[in-house]
Design goal:
This protein has 118 residues and is of the alpha+beta class. Helix content is 28%, strand content 36%. It has a single domain, classed as Nuclear Transport Factor 2, Chain: A, CATH 3.10.450.700. It has two helices and four strands; from the N terminus they run αββββα. The relative contact order is 0.09.
Length: 118
């Protein structure tokens, strides 16, 4: 019985043929290329957001996940619509330029005050 579980796990692991993670603050986006039973590839796009409940030592966390499955026959339509939406936002609000972050060695350590009680 355990051998069947292991072979089943290998089937699931083989399902993902390419994977990429994009970290964005409290969210992580996963773009996975998967194969179905007919060996046809499709995209699985997952947004994972960490949810913290409570504070301090009593804090617990869960992950809220949302998935989109995008099939090959819809790639062109999806890509065109996504590009149109992105171009609209850029036309209305301009390109997003992230604020510059000072390298660690340039940070002023005197401003850093860590107070830890054990």
């Amino acid at each position: 019985m355990e051998d069947n579980r292991k072979s089943g796990m290998n089937e699931i692991e083989k399902e993902i043929v390419f994977s990429q993670a994009i970290k964005a603050g409290k969210r992580i986006y996963y773009i996975d290329v998967k194969k179905n039973r007919k060996d046809e590839m499709y995209l699985s796009i997952t947004e994972s957001k960490k949810i913290v409940n409570g504070e301090g030592e009593n804090a617990t966390f869960t992950f809220e996940k949302h998935k989109i499955f995008l099939y090959r026959e819809d790639f062109a339509k999806f890509t065109n619509s996504l590009n149109e939406a992105i171009n609209f936002v850029v036309a209305e609000q301009g390109e997003y330029v992230p604020a510059p972050v000072a390298p660690a060695e340039e940070c002023n350590d005197e401003k850093l005050n860590i107070d830890i009680d054990f």
